[in-house]
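Cont'd.
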Amino acid sequence: MPEVVILGGNVRPFARYADGSTPRDWSRAAVAGALADAGIAAGDVDAVVVGMESDHLALQLSPGALLADEVGLHGRPLQRVEAGGASGAAAVRAGFAQIRAGLARCVLVLGVEHAASHLRGRDVTFLYGLSFDADLEGFNGITPVNLYALSIAEYMRRHAVAEKDLALVAVKNRGNALANPNAHRPGLITVDDVMASPVVSTPYKQLDCSPLSDGAAALVLADSDWAPKLDRAPVRIAGSGCANDFVRLGDRAEPHRFAAKTAAAGQACAAAGLRDPRADIAVAEVYDAFTGAELQALEDLGLSEPGRAARDLRDGRFHREGAVPVNLSGGLIGQGGAPGATGVAQIAGLERILSGRDETYATLASAARRALADAHGGIGTVAVVHVLERMGP
Amino acid sequence: MTEESRAPWPLEIAFTYRHDVGDLRPFFDALAEGRLLGARCVRCGRRWCPPRLVCPVDGAETAWVELSGRGTLRAVTFGAGRIPPKGPAGEFAWGLVDVDGCDNAATVRLSGSPGGLRPGARVRLAPPEGPAAHPIQRFVFAPVGEER
């Protein structure tokens, strides 16, 4: 099967846009930037995949057709992909699959979301409350933060993890975002800041939560046999995994875990030939919708042993100078959460690090060969995991 | 282009859905009567509340079964919310409840004194009185002894 390499990418700043611009504008800019970064023309693109979560948020049904038209790509296979917060990651996987299957040599993946700037917060909260089991949970007033809170409460009880341990994730990720010009919420904050922020749903406080963001990102994926020669060692998608879980937390045998991540990571790592993610992954982007969700994910992805993520974090393992830096972009907490764009932006950022094109992490690039990108929809309900690998030295 | 001409304009859209709950209706009808129904797998006998119309263990059909309406609180969270979802803001509690006799847990709204809402507390179905914008808003548990 063909190797799939990342020819180029582009991320528009994650933010709450108040300049009158729209997803059409962000999409045009992201696609133009990705094509330029890849050094190819629009005519070279064989197929288009659009990742976007919510038609209701965007006030645009069938957004894939509109956005492909908007960016000037016609007469090609087109699909729109939705997997909640993993919509962007699932779009990457769909593009990867087309190339692996020999259906395309070059795929443009666009991830975009109009999630935050144009609706009242209470309306966004209501709509997101319908993204789990609307009839059996959402209409009873339960929102995403309530479900994540119940899951982490159980996790904290089992593993004796404290609220201050969760706060360390926010401190790390907001700090990492300072080096990311596309980040929505960069900042130097302290554990005390997190602990003093208003309670949203115990144990989560405002600074434990990622912001909802508008944003767009695009990637150009290509068959390595077709791809033009790059002036750098190309980065390939070495493995892609996807798995789902019960939608309702209470139907799961272990509501404090994201079992779908374990399955998806297992698939991706096996495809990449990895035996132990703790030893083989050098840098990771992990779906930190809430601080505790990062700790849960680190364990379920195999980057920490069960119950050890908080201790590993305290020991510095996941900090930017640590053994496995996690969320150098800032993650959702620092970079922001734009569901359709997040998974695409994660991979665009990791490609730049592995290829040595991100000057901030040039030292890391010399040692880092493999990266892991993790995203999920729901509360770990649909997990999509990719393993990236630099080819050559 | 002037700043004023670039200002966004409010766009208000309201829909009225003819919403229904399909084959889950017996569960909601029972809630309206203050009773709790679960679903029992006709093959393996496992019980599910909230109900599952296909058993996730063996794929067999399930049949309705009357439950006691009691359970044990496994996890709880307190926070601001809106019930109905577009109603006024208030302070609420939600919990993960192991319903007696069932193999799964239910995510429910909780009522009663916050001090009584602790993991391990015994709770019981306690639907609020009055109309509900959606029938799931009657899926409320309270500590045993505090239900109305």
